[in-house]
Design brief:
CATH topology of the largest domain: Rossmann fold
Shape: globular
Number of domains: 2
CATH class of the largest domain: Alpha Beta
Largest sheet: 4 strands, parallel
Strand content: 5-15%
Structural class: alpha/beta
């Protein structure tokens, strides 16, 4: 068929994949951290307090006190490529693009900060992607993480005249591809140590305990990941939850409390963070730096942090397996 001479140019139909992680400030400086926290902590999925009560606290107290402290923490892990989370997520997208070849166009986005989800969807659509798989990089489902990605993507669709078809990668807490990748990564990490840890501690990001009672499967999925990983490794994996904030009761046991307990008992510890797809502030600063300092201060002697899957071969192979499965019928 011959198109009219004045017909607008339309890219050939393609399939897109958008990897989405939580986000990061664009600099380890208080103003950048303040902008990031303002967006992050204003999400009603993240802080489930009525805005009329929460916003005065956020704007009047938290955004005037926390950015300086957080900026100092970010400065300790910042690299020449910027935020580790941003650099690793870019590398994951690039590696997945190589693995998928011409089958799909791969991009990445952050739920908070840049690159944002809406413009990333627009860029894929402009490249001809009329079918897009959104892949939240959260193995365990929580409304404060996975659901916020779905919210942002579907909210953006409301602004579009010509909407692409969307699919969403489901949580993969017990998926064999994920567990195989975790097992290979942990085994490699343990083999590189100069000691055999008495305790393997899986530290997941904390959530208020009320999220469990409201119906989030997060706590159960974290426990299941650790149990299945322990079965694959042939040794138990302890579970703890980090990053508590505010006065509400959070999921327990707390990572910092467990580290102190193990140190005082004379145990050696290796900590892993299987709920994070990429190393970030919560793993590199909170666990690998502050966690180790706390452990040693409590009398501990042997401590190791085992990296996340990141863009290493096992992690990329897992992403390819999960993505290809969800693209069935599209590619």
């Amino acid at each position: 068929m011959t198109l009219p001479s004045d017909h607008p140019a339309i890219a050939a139909p393609r399939v897109g994949v958008l990897l989405v992680n939580l986000g990061t400030p664009d600099a380890p400086e208080p103003p950048a951290v303040r902008r990031y926290l303002a967006e992050f902590l204003s999400d009603r999925r993240v802080v489930e307090i009525p805005p009329i009560l929460w916003q005065p606290i956020l704007r009047g107290i938290i955004l005037n006190t926390r950015p300086k402290k957080s900026a100092h923490a970010y400065a300790q892990i910042w690299t020449d490529q910027g935020s580790p989370l941003a650099a690793i997520t870019r590398a994951q997208a690039a590696a997945l693009q190589i693995a998928l070849g011409d089958a799909a166009e791969v991009a990445h986005a952050m739920r908070y900060g840049e690159p944002a989800i809406g413009p990333a969807i627009d860029a894929l659509a402009a490249a001809g992607c009329r079918r897009i798989l959104i892949a939240p990089l959260y193995p365990q489902y929580c409304a404060a993480t996975t659901a916020t990605v779905v919210d942002a993507a579907t909210d953006h669709l409301k602004t579009l005249r010509w909407q692409p078809a969307l699919r969403f990668l489901p949580p993969y807490a017990d998926d064999p591809a994920y567990l195989d990748a975790l097992t290979a990564s942990v085994e490699a990490g343990l083999a590189a140590l100069d000691f055999v840890p008495d305790i393997l501690l899986a530290s997941f990001h904390g959530m208020p305990e009320r999220t469990l009672h409201l119906g989030d499967p997060y706590h159960c999925q974290c426990q299941k990941t650790a149990r299945l990983l322990g079965e694959a490794l042939g040794r138990p994996v302890e579970v703890a939850f980090q990053s508590r904030f505010g006065r509400a009761k959070w999921l327990e046991p707390a990572t910092d409390a467990q580290l102190e307990k193990f140190a005082q008992a004379g145990k050696s510890v290796a900590v892993l963070a299987p709920g994070f797809a990429a190393d970030c502030l919560e793993t590199l600063e909170e666990l690998a730096i502050r966690g180790k300092e706390q452990f040693m201060a409590a009398g501990g002697r042997k401590f190791a942090y085992l990296p996340c899957l990141n863009a290493d071969a096992p992690g990329v192979a897992m992403l390819e397996a999960l993505v290809r499965r969800e693209l069935a019928g599209w590619i």
